[in-house]
User: Which sequence fits this backbone?
């Protein structure tokens, strides 16, 4: 153990902690990196051939580093004692109860972790916030840590994570930027340098941005709010396109070529999902409201409202296209993950759509190459839902297909074969604009996409 230059610990073996630590271990063989979690089952999975997180490139890195300088363990106390740098990546879901329910972050796991660190530590530690947390959490963390009876020194650093699911390993290896925020005191700056040094092993120095701890915390929320705002903006425009014979993809292309705007995150869709966008915006809204900034809060809340509207609009389009009744009709949902290349279904638009369709008394068949297990858990107790891994079988006998996730495989299916197996008239609702709509119309489908005039046979 003494051979390692640094002893780094991460508390929380989830989507953020696992991949981030695997990358640090991969890039810095001189450091010992440990991931600890009280969930024994999860740690056992990290130590097995079947990791609990699916990310392209993750398996290889974990396999090479595990047992060499990357370790997965369950004894939090011992691990805290041994480490000098501790990342905290426990989950902070939206609070489901009490004040701020549905808006504020639930900090119970996070606070428990802070207390655990305080109890176990017997030497100075740098404690790094990695999870998305409300602004000023670092202050609370400092208070909890410094209320220890002993004289152990803790420095709290904010180092928000910007990785997106499905591209986590690439985002970690070639980040647009890494943010490291600290107190601007002598001791705070020293701790900041230690964390900067870790990333400097592979990230170009000019991409490592240093700031105050508050700017760093706020930047994370604002980055996600801006990204989500672009999607809500183009989705709002998609509703107008459908009324005016414009095509939202053409509009997106035209505006995206303006270098001030850029072309990414302008794909109109059935709505954004994922564990971060809604949660972070609601956090931002809550923060603004708590400072009495109601206009600012309303502005950002609009981003979430448009997203809800987009999902409702999608179901209403299906309903009106299919002669105002879905009762007894069979509808295949192509995809359940909140985006392609992940099995994650947190806050996926597909869940809301599936539930609305069932409320309309439709029979829903869910298919997804990676997310069927999660779909089953999310829809547990909901009647009239079936699960089928094979999209051809899922569509058989259906009245409609609704594309929920932009999995490449859905663009490559044999739609003539699918059409032949479906009830007629057959409908396709492309919630991701990934299919060849003209071709589908030629085959015989009634085609409804996002932000484009529908193509329906008379
Ligand atoms: C996001 C941020 O991108 C990342 O920086 C942050 O750390 C965590 O939150 P993630 O939730 O993994 O990452 O997914 P992202 O790729 O950002 O997509 C979010 C949602 O928006 C998905 O449902 C996606 O399908 C949707 N989306 C994205 C669109 O509908 N249109 C687009 O143009 C882009």
Assistant:
């Amino acid at each position: 153990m003494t051979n390692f230059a640094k002893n780094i610990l991460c508390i929380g073996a989830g989507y953020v902690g696992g991949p981030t630590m695997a990358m640090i271990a991969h890039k810095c063989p001189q450091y010992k990196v440990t991931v600890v979690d009280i969930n024994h089952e999860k740690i056992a999975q990290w130590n097995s051939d079947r990791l609990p997180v699916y990310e392209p490139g993750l398996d290889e890195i974990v396999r090479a580093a595990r047992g060499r300088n990357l370790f997965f363990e369950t004894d939090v106390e011992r691990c805290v004692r041994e480490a000098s740098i501790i990342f905290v990546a426990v989950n902070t879901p939206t609070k489901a109860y009490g004040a701020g329910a549905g808006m504020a972050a639930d900090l119970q796991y996070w606070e428990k972790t802070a207390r655990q660190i305080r109890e176990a530590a017997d030497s100075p530690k740098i404690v790094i916030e990695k999870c998305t947390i409300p602004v000023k959490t670092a202050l609370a963390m400092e208070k909890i840590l410094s209320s220890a009876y002993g004289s152990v020194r803790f420095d709290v650093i904010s180092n928000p994570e910007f990785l997106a699911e499905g591209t986590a390993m690439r985002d970690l290896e070639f980040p647009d930027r890494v943010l490291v925020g600290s107190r601007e005191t002598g001791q705070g700056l020293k701790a900041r340098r230690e964390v900067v040094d870790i990333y400097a092993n592979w990230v170009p120095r000019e991409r490592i941005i240093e700031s105050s701890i508050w700017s760093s915390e706020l930047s994370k929320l604002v980055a996600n709010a801006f990204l989500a705002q672009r999607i809500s903006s183009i989705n709002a425009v998609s509703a107008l396109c459908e009324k005016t014979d414009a095509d939202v993809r053409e509009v997106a292309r035209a505006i995206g070529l303006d270098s001030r705007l850029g072309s990414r995150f302008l794909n109109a869709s059935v709505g954004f999902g994922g564990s971060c966008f809604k949660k972070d915006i609601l956090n931002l809204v809550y923060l603004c409201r708590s400072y009495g900034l109601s206009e600012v809060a309303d502005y950002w809340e609009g981003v979430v409202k448009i997203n809800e509207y987009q999902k409702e609009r999608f179901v209403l389009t299906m309903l009106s296209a299919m002669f105002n009744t879905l009762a007894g009709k069979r509808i295949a949902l192509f995809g359940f993950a909140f985006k392609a290349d992940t099995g994650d279904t947190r806050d996926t638009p597909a869940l809301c759509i599936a539930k609305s369709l069932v409320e309309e008394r439709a029979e829903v068949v869910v298919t997804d190459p990676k997310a069927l297990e999660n779909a089953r858990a999310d829809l547990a107790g909901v009647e009239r839902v079936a699960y089928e891994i094979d999209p051809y079988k899922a569509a058989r006998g259906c009245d409609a297909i609704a594309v929920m996730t932009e999995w490449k495989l859905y663009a490559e299916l044999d739609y003539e074969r699918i059409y032949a197996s479906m009830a007629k008239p057959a409908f396709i609702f492309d919630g991701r604009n990934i299919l060849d709509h003209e071709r589908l119309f030629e085959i015989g489908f009634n085609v409804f996409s996002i932000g484009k005039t529908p193509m329906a046979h008379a």
The first helix runs from residue 17 to 27. Residues 6 and 31 are 5 Å apart (CA to CA).
